[in-house]
Design a protein that fits this description.
By secondary structure, the chain is of the alpha+beta class. Helices cover 40% and strands 20% of the residues.
């Protein structure tokens, strides 16, 4: 079998974090009862007219600036005509001819090195509703809550060559948009969705093959599997003498296979024409300068600052900034307790462990910065032992419990009374003559065992600093 090169371009749809929809005042909140957030405009009632949400334009321009795009001083909306049950107007308001952003690029890092992925354009549009399929009743229901939610579509150039590059690009894009605050980019809730346009060609060839578009990709794992499956499917077709058909395919992640949905449309099939109910958008240089000036500190800048300002290792800075929520929590807690390395240790250790155990992402963290700072101070001062601190942290993580209140209510404060501790330590020394002999023979690590035995006898409530001092004195 000949060697084939994979050519991939992405269309990434991102729901913007506005409180209301793009052309009406309905809420964009996720998870409401079906059809609760609707009105005549977003359900396409005759006679209703759209009014553009200015915040949508601001978010789109901010993302374009961060992606190195040219921001158009003049852009306009177009009407894309197609029929589908979740599309109440039988058309979608989008941007074809004059999108708001053009000609950008995002640099990614993979095992192969650094590479810039070109961005052809970013345009604004409205989302469609959602079909809910009931296989048991053999019916489909339509929920129009999502209809009219503002989207930007980020269209890349066909510069991607592997699943690894695709995931690196999507992760960089998601991080950038989250740091901007333009979207939460939750794939599981559909606020970030990627359609994969993929073709294969013989290695060394400069001509593009026939591409297919894959939809229904709602996780990075699904995207990776879909790309591997589709490139092999196309290569097999070509090797067997067949012809790849330009079509839209739906990915079934449970079966790990795709199937044809419809033949792939071109722009002419949608009969685009200028949207008659909306005037063109003109962006002044002053307004654009204000958006540029308000661009936040991005991940790479934060990583450098954390190393310089807080003296953190590069690894710590990389982990902490991998989530904007985690980075914000780190900074707020560090400002309160002035112990950045200790805060970093708790976030990178216990926090990441509990996130994994509970199947959560860092962006879902509900930890309070002030409470985290309190716990750091309690543990650092010896007011609670390390074992107790971990117990208290788990309560904070799961239930938002105040650490000081929890320690007081459960009597978990560390015992620092020298008289009480001395008697326990004397018994530990008497019970472990071999460790005592090892320590006196020069094995400094032996004291660690004796500290452990003391903590065990005190049920984890002894002040480790006081225990160490008394042990060494007695030894």
């Amino acid at each position: 079998m000949r060697e084939y090169e994979t050519v991939i371009g992405l269309e990434v749809h991102v729901e913007l974090a506005t409180k209301t929809k793009i052309f009406c005042g309905c809420s964009t909140a996720f998870g409401a009862q079906p059809n609760a957030h609707t009105c005549p405009v977003c359900t396409g009632m005759p006679g209703s007219l759209p009014v553009l949400n200015k915040k949508v334009v601001e978010y789109a321009a901010a993302v374009g600036i961060a992606a190195g795009c040219e921001i158009s001083a003049y852009s306009k909306f177009d009407r894309k005509n197609y029929f589908y049950p979740d599309n109440p107007q039988n058309y979608q308001i989008s941007q074809l001819y004059e999108p708001i952003c053009k000609n950008g690029g995002i640099e990614i890092q993979t095992e192969s090195g650094r590479k810039t992925i070109g961005i052809h354009e970013i345009h604004m549009e409205e989302d469609a509703g959602k079909l809910v399929h009931d296989e048991w009743e053999d019916v489909s229901y339509v929920d129009y809550n999502r209809s009219g939610v503002p989207l930007i579509e980020i269209v890349s150039e066909p510069d991607l060559r592997s699943a690894q590059e695709v995931i690196a690009y999507l992760e960089k894009l998601r991080m950038m948009i989250q740091y901007l605050g333009a979207s939460d980019c939750k794939l599981q809730e559909g606020s970030m969705r990627a359609d994969v346009n993929l073709s294969v060609r013989p290695a060394g060839s400069q001509e593009y093959g026939t591409r297919t578009e894959m939809k229904n990709l709602n996780s990075f794992k699904a995207i990776t599997r879909a790309i591997e499956h589709e490139k092999n499917r196309q290569a097999d077709i070509i090797e067997s003498g067949g012809t790849v058909i330009q079509e839209t395919r739906r990915w079934d992640d449970a079966k790990e296979e795709s199937y044809a949905m419809r033949s792939k449309e071109d722009a002419k099939d949608y009969r685009y024409f200028p949207e008659p109910d909306l005037v063109p958008i003109r962006i002044s240089e002053t307004w654009l300068a204000n958006i540029r000036a308000s661009q936040p500190e991005m991940r790479e800048e934060r990583m450098e600052r954390y190393q310089a300002q807080y003296g953190l290792p590069e690894y710590d800075a990389e982990i902490l900034t991998s989530s904007k929520r985690m980075a914000d929590l780190f900074e707020e807690a560090s400002q309160i307790c002035a112990k950045p390395k200790k805060v970093s240790n708790w976030l990178m250790g216990e926090t990441m462990r509990l996130l994994r155990e509970n199947g959560q992402e860092p962006d879902s963290l509900s930890l309070d910065a002030a409470q985290l700072a309190k716990l750091v101070n309690l543990a650092d001062s010896g007011a609670v032992s390390n074992t107790v601190a971990k117990e208290v942290f788990a309560e904070m993580f799961l239930h938002g419990t105040d650490p000081e209140q929890y320690v007081n209510e459960h009597g978990l404060g560390a015992v620092s009374d020298e008289g009480e501790l001395r008697g326990v330590i004397e018994q530990v020394i008497a019970d472990n003559p071999k460790s005592v002999e090892d320590y006196r023979g020069g094995k400094q690590k032996a004291v660690g065992f004796l500290v452990g035995q003391t903590m065990k006898a005190m049920k984890g409530k002894a002040n480790p600093g006081v225990v160490n001092r008394i042990l060494k004195e007695l030894l």
